[in-house]
């Protein structure tokens, strides 16, 4: 039996550095990532893209204070190999899928860049707050080399908060995936009645934190043998104080079920339900997230 201390995956750990007015989060995905990817059997470039997006969703989503809140990442384009990429996070549960053009992927480079995959695409990051029923969304172009670059642009442009995002993804010799991420931010001081960081001409406290964060290697982030606490200690062991926050367990979570789908279908008028049904009186709903089909008898739908 594997020693859980030597396989630190599927959780996120938050921390703050009070003297530097900074907060951070580290995450590592393992079996959860494999479960999501295995449902789709994507080719390697698409698989790697979805792994990166899921890790990013786990990093940002786990910062939500609202336990019922949801984070959604959506990247799309009209002129790229990838038509649509969707990932979301809610209460530690992750799900995601990709729609892409098989022929264009086969005709492209073996290891396509983000631009080759999306062309002139954009990334939308949406926060849904369950407690207040408020929604916040920011959209940025996919101009960088990675989704992490686009996420950094989102926080700088939309939130005006300096942010560092680093990701590392590895495929183990046995075929299993491990992905890790680091998320660092300067605390929005305006919330405490002080001026926001972006109005200053310089901010050496944040620059110090960012320089340290840049030293974290992708191989360290994706190494399941290294506990997340060790990653934080390696970066900030010389700081006066680093406060660890409670961790969040990660799992694959698709919210579709026969009962839920029947409930959604029940919102359609009976004549539309009959139009959706096949010759056997069944409406077959295909869930893109978990790659499962759910046949629902029209006769069983309660309108």
Short description:
This protein has helices spanning 31-38, 44-61, 102-107, 114-118, 147-159, 204-214, 218-221, 228-236, 258-265, 270-276; strands at residues 11-17, 22-29, 70-76, 82-90, 93-100, 122-129, 134-141, 163-171, 177-186, 243-249, 251-252, 282-287, 292-297.
What structural class do helix, strand and pairing data support? alpha+beta
Gross geometry: globular
CATH architecture of the largest domain: 3-Layer(bab) Sandwich
The total of helices stands at 10
Q: Major β-sheet, in short?
A: 6 strands, mixed
Low-pLDDT stretches? 1-5, 190-201
The top-level CATH class of the largest domain is: Alpha Beta
Q: Can you describe this structure?
A:
Helix content is 29%, strand content 31%. It is an alpha+beta fold. The chain has two domains: 7-252, 3-Layer(bab) Sandwich (Hsp33 domain); 258-300, no CATH class. The chain has a six-stranded mixed sheet. Strands 8-9-2-1-10 form a five-stranded antiparallel sheet, with helices on both faces. It has a two-stranded antiparallel sheet with strand order 12-13. The longest helix is centred in the N-terminal third of the chain and has 18 residues, at 44-61. The protein is globular and about 70 Å long.
What labels describe this entry?
303 residues, alpha+beta, Hsp33 domain, 2 domains, six-stranded mixed β-sheet, five-stranded antiparallel β-sheet, globular, disordered N terminus
Reconstruct the topology from this structure.
Layout: E1 11-17, E2 22-29, H1 31-38, H2 44-61, E3 70-76, E4 82-90, E5 93-100, H3 102-107, H4 114-118, E6 122-129, E7 134-141, H5 147-159, E8 163-171, E9 177-186, H6 204-214, H7 218-221, H8 228-236, E10 243-249, E11 251-252, H9 258-265, H10 270-276, E12 282-287, E13 292-297
């Amino acid at each position: 039996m594997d020693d859980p201390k030597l396989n630190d995956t599927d959780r996120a750990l938050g921390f703050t550095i009070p003297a530097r007015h900074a907060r951070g989060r580290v995450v590592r995905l393992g079996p959860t990532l494999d479960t999501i990817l295995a449902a789709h059997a994507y080719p390697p470039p698409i698989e790697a893209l979805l792994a990166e997006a899921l890790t990013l969703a786990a990093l940002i989503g786990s910062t939500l204070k609202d336990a019922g809140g949801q984070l959604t990442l959506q990247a799309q384009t009209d002129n790229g190999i990838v038509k649509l990429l969707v990932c979301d996070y809610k209460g530690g549960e992750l799900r995601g899928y990709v729609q892409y053009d098989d022929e264009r992927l086969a005709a492209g480079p073996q290891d396509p860049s983000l631009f080759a995959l999306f062309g002139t695409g954009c990334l939308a990051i949406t926060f849904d707050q369950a407690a207040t029923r408020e929604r916040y969304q920011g959209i940025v172009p996919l101009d960088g080399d990675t989704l992490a670059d686009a996420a950094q642009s989102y926080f700088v442009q939309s939130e005006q908060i300096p942010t560092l995002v680093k990701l590392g993804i590895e495929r183990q010799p046995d075929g299993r995936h491990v992905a890790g991420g680091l998320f660092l931010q300067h605390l929005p001081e305006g919330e405490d009645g002080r001026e926001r960081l972006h109005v200053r001409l310089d901010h050496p406290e944040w620059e110090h934190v960012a320089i340290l964060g840049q030293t974290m290697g992708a191989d360290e982030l994706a190494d399941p043998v290294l506990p997340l606490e060790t990653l934080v200690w390696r970066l900030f062991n010389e700081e006066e104080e680093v406060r660890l926050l409670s961790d969040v367990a990660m799992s694959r979570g698709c919210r579709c079920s026969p009962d839920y789908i029947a409930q959604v279908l029940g919102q359609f008028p009976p004549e539309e339900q009959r139009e959706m049904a096949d010759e056997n009186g069944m409406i077959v709903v295909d869930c893109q997230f978990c790659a499962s089909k759910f046949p629902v008898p029209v006769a069983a739908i309660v309108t």
